[in-house]
Known about the structure:
Helix content is 34%, strand content 27%. By secondary structure, the chain is of the alpha/beta class. The protein has a single domain, classed as Rossmann fold (3-Layer(aba) Sandwich). It starts with a helix and ends with a strand.
Amino acid sequence: MFVRLSVQKQLLKMNQEFYRTVAAEFDRTRQGLPVGMLALAQLLHEQLSQPIRLLDVGCGNGRFARALVAREIRGNYTGLDADRQLLDLAAAQTGALPGLRCQFVQADLASPGWDSRLDPGGYDVVVALAVLHHLPGEALRQQVTAQLAGLLAPRGLLALSTWQFLSSERLAARTVDWSTVGLNGQDVEPGDAVLPWEQGTHALRYVHHLDLAEVEQLLAACQLHLSTTFRADGKEGNLNLFVVARR
């Protein structure tokens, strides 16, 4: 289904405002290292020679860098995010990590050419955790996945995670009616939703339910081959789908 440009811009703006509003609360509630994140770091430790060159797209407060150190991974870590507040928090919380040289870049994945500021073909691993489900429209998700793939070294790994919120009755029941944001079901794609944040303040965010079949389609279009999948995290223990693919 084609999402109108005006709708896409509205949903992107909603998420920009969401992270601008909740940055402090988001950081406070994202200090722990989830099971899935640690499992992914362990997988990278087992499959890659060190030191590594890793790009963390949508890095937030940089906690995946801490997961890498927890699994004794050394190398260069570049975190990229659109929100300046989160990048400042990430820089402050990763500056003294042993064995990992951290740097940060501000860029918006929905803006053309965001990847031109990075090293094409220069990363052993590109990680995008809880990122693609914030991009409205199949075409945009495919474009960004192709850009992520283009940043990989010849034998590089692309690691993704997507939120399986519709597989949880608890979360599915919290979705907000589209009329709340001036839209209706015909304006958006199947699997699109708006979910509230109620931790410290009220805010709304756009999300898309990317199941394994849809992720596989994105990867296949970039000639990436699926190597590992697993689910972890959340109260149910399976709310994040992790996927690792290789050229």
